[in-house]
Amino acid sequence: MASSTPAPEVSYDPHTAAFAPFGPEGDGDQPVWNPTEESVRPVRGRHRVVKQRTGMARSGAVLGVGVIAAVGAGGIATAKDKSPVAISMPDVDLGAVAEGIPVVGGLVSDGGDDDPTPQGEATSPFGGTVTQAGLDTSDATTTVVTADAGEALRARILQQADQQQTGAAQAALEEAAEQAAGKAAEEAADQAAEEEAERKRKAAEEAARKAEAERLAKLAASYTLPLNSYQLTSTFGQSGSMWSSNHTGLDFAAPTGTPVKAVHSGEIVEAGWAGSYGYRIILRLDDGTEVWYAHLSSMTVTTGKVTTGDVIGRVGSTGNSTGAHLHMEVRPGGGDPIDPLAWLRSKGQSI
User: Fold this and answer.
1) Which domains does the chain possess?
2) ∠ CA 45-50-54 to the nearest 5 degrees?
3) How many H-runs (helices) and E-runs (strands) does the chain carry?
4) Which runs of E-coded beta strand occur in the chain?
5) M23ase beta-sheet core domain location, by residue (predicted)?
């Protein structure tokens, strides 16, 4: 049973950390207190005995802070004897993350010169050194290398994508340019072909014109008009009371006795009186065409061969005639008559 005797008053010296009672047995003003069983009673209630933190406690706190920092940075401190594990972090700037995390070494250091851990680092209980990001040095190196490799790969992929896009655009431009060039070449070829065809057509026309001119020149040399001086009074197909049907020939008005010539070489096959035609001469040409000369006043040649320009008769007004003139008909193959005017022009004669 505890004694009811009150405990002596004591004072606490923070420098010596000793309790001393006031009394005559102490040294000077601070006598030594010798505790007894009754004076030392257990402390009850909510009072606690304050314990000073030792170095081990502080190290544990530091270790906890380091672990928290490592987890916040996306990694965890590992022992050096374990193989490092790469930490994949998409597009994370580790330097920026590390700047926002308190330096573990700064928390551990108490400002003394004897602290063996450099500023910004702490010793891991597993044997490694914890960096500012809370990672083991080997892990931090692996993380940085992995992040750099990922960033490099990403940059390479983007560069390849840009190159592919640029290549595709360039290929499209080249294809469009080739198509445009091909189309322009085709158009140029078509235009050249058209120009060549036009040139050939004009050349052919010119050649044909020259050939016709040569032919007409030869015919002009071998053909001639029946009279040197004349006036056309009635044309082919003209109608009138003088004819039972439309006019079948071409009338050359000229004075009586005007010489009449053979228009081409041939043979006189008939000469004499022919009713309404009066005196008539029929000249058959080499191609079988018959040329009739009518209303003659006289016939110079009545049979045989003649050449171009030979005089075969003279202008008159015999038969069914109203005045002196030469009625000329042209009958291919001895058949129906055709227009003498067109026939003479086809033989190169200007009429």
Assistant:
1) 1-43 (no CATH), 55-78+93-135 (no CATH), 231-346 (2.70.70.10)
2) 150
3) 5, 13
4) 10-13, 18-21, 122-123, 129-130, 231-234, 250-253, 259-261, 266-273, 279-285, 290-299, 304-306, 311-315, 325-331
5) 246-340
- Maximal C-alpha separation, the chain: 205
How many Å apart are CA 155 and CA 76, to the nearest integer? 28
The per-residue pLDDT for range 6-29, each reduced to its tens digit, is 555 555 454 444 444 444 444 445
How much is the pLDDT for 23?
A: 47
Distance CA(351)–CA(344), nearest Å, equals 8
Determine the Cα–Cα distance for residues 9 and 175; give it in Å rounded to an integer. Answer: 107
Q: In terms of pTM, does the model score above 0.90?
A: no
Report in angstroms the alpha-carbon separations of 180 from 19, 174, 187, 195: 108, 10, 10, 22
Neighbour count for residue 123 (Cβ, 10 Å): 18
* CB half-sphere exposure, 287, CA atoms < 13 A: 6
Which conformational region is residue 310 in: left (phi greater than 0), alpha (psi within -120 to 50 degrees), or beta? beta
In the numeric block, which tokens belong to residue 20?
A: 């001393």
The total number of residues shown for the chain amounts to: 351
